[in-house]
Amino acid sequence: MKSMKFIAVLAATALIGAACGDDAPSSGTSAGAVNGAGKTLNVLVQANTIYPEQQRQWFTDTAAKFKAATGADVKFETFASPNDELTKIQTSVLSSQGPDVYSLGTTFTPTAYATGAFLVLKDDDWKKIGGKDAFLPATLGISGPDAEHQVGIPFASRPFVMAYNTELLKAAGIDKPADSWDGLLEQAKKLTTGGNYGLAVAYADGFDPWKFIWAMSVQAGNPLVSGRKATLDDPATLKAYQTYLGWLATDKVVNPAAVGWKNAQAIADFGAGKSAFLPMVTATSKPTLDKSAVAGKYAYAIMPTTPPGQSSKPGNGVGATSILSGDNLVVANYTKNKDLALALVKQLTSAESQEAYYKTFGEMPTNAEAAKKLQADPALAAIIESSSKAAGTPFSGAWSQVQLALVNVVVQSIPALQAGKVDDAKLKSLVADAQKAAQDAIDKTK
Amino acid sequence: MAVRTVNRRQRPLWMLAPGGVLMIVVILVPLAVALLVSLLDLDQYTLREWTSAPFIGLDNYVEAVRETALPHAIGVSVGYSALVTVATLPIGLAAALATQQRFPGRALVRSAFLIPYVLPAFVVGTVWRTILQPQGPVNALLGEQLLWLNGPRSYWALVVVQLWTSWPLLYLLALSGLQGINNDVHEAAALDGAGWWMKLRYVIFPHLRGVLALGLIISFLHNLNNFTLPFVLFGVPAPHDVEVLPVLTYVESFQNFRFGLSAAMAVLSLVLVAIPLSVYLRAVRLNRDED
Lengths: 446, 291
Fold this sequence. Notes:
The complex is a heterodimer of chains A (about 450) and B (about 290). With about 450 residues, chain A is of the alpha/beta class. Chain A has helices at about 1-20, 50-70, 80-95, 110-115, 125-130, 165-170, 180-190, 210-220, 235-250, 265-270, 285-290, 340-350, 350-360, 370-375, 380-390, 400-415, 425-445, and strands at about 40-45, 75-80, 100-105, 155, 160-165, 195-200, 225, 230, 275-280, 300, 325-330.
């Protein structure tokens, strides 16, 4: 009987152990000089769906190099989607265990900062990763609320640009894409002919729409959040929505089916040669497009910087070509291997690694030295220009909520678009709701 | 061999311990934590030290009911779940009756009927999302460019897809119920000259009542709690017409970081789920008393 009791207890313990599956880093306890023998560093990065093979190779190479330098192992984990990423970060923050180093999207950095779970880099820390000067100054724009409180170390830059079909433009007698949104619309109207459309826009994407609204707003002088005030109810933002939704509803320069498109579907449509412009894509669209029907017949340009309804950028407007986009590395506060983590960050952001990273994945370096070498490449001109003219989204812990509110306006506006008009009364009420949601979220920031 | 009767005192209740401990760890503790969180002002700023997040009593519940889309989401969830549940009954029953008699290829048909049910919800959602695209097969078939994944039609898209994936549950239960009816009863009814309708009405239905009631309850709860399908079909932020309760709860937690508010919503949906469940449990208990 006694032995049965023992077995039952043993089984229960084993089950509980399995249920609570513990992810604590298997590293040693004491942090010291960067001698990581016997330690393991856990790193969470986004799964690269375009180059999965290369990413696995990159994991192996990076780990081998780090092992040679410090004696420590690096274990990479991947997340599949931004939602996946959020969940993972939340559980790690809550349980104070999980990856030592995270690669975060730039726009998520403010929210990550707000949790207080990530290392705010002191001068000493910056020194350990090779100094702030090693980075392109623009890429540091969304690392923290100010220069003294930065958590994000720029790792990759993915500025947004616009792809255009050189053949279609040439046929229509257009020599280059317009630099104002109104101009782009005129060109798009001209190019909407013979079953082709002027613009490919992913209206059903969970993230794309807010980037348009933000860009047009900030160009007109409305940053959407200033201090503790949301300004989504500014006329410039309403105009941005009207323009963005009008492309499909009233101007009819977008395929009506685009109401169901995510970003990948817009890229596919452009790749099939059915639309002339593909705004709001990054260089990561290149591998897809190079294998598509428009291979060799497309180029990238920066997106317009003159806001809708205006002929020149107003004085208080920011000529942003893109959000400050890419990845930041952050080091978890709870890590027991801070110095080791910083050593890895140093390795990943070194000129040599960044160049290799660009060559493999097509993502632009944040390392100043590596970036300088690429400047001469004419194929990258637009991307580099956009990188230098990108502006950071507001560094607010509530930004994720503001983003969601911005996208929600588009989602709820879509059903009415088929009627061939933008319902201004409905739009105004949706924008008012978004303003309230954004302001409520900002009021709660601490 | 003498049979040893076990009296109440001697029953080896400790053998329930592993299961009991598991239940406490897997069900009761998280439930208690959810209840606690629903009383806290827990968000991205307080998450790191969540136990010291400000206690705000029932504020989250008040906010959930008054200021969020919760009442609307409950309406959508209950409405579509009830619709789907009611519609699965005749379909599942008809399928079960049709495959009860032996015929060549019956095994194949029976297996085919289960396909929608065994497919992962994620796959179902992805496939239907493609089918219902503006340029998808459904619109090609109709020859019109209708909007299925947003706007008023999205509600019916959700009903149809959920119906497609959930009717086999009713079918399975009805089938098992039918197998349980003794052949003698069929024979007796036939001898008494009962036609198919009389047989169905007075012999088969009364036998199936219990199992179908269980099927309906399970089906309703499944529909009410279904997160994956609407999430994959429509994405977030959800279109207004298909803003169901689980998706709203998810968005509050994982997009808006209002964990306290979201926990309050989750607790309220638990209450919602408990209503049909308690009705069912009560009904079962009453039946037993009659016996």
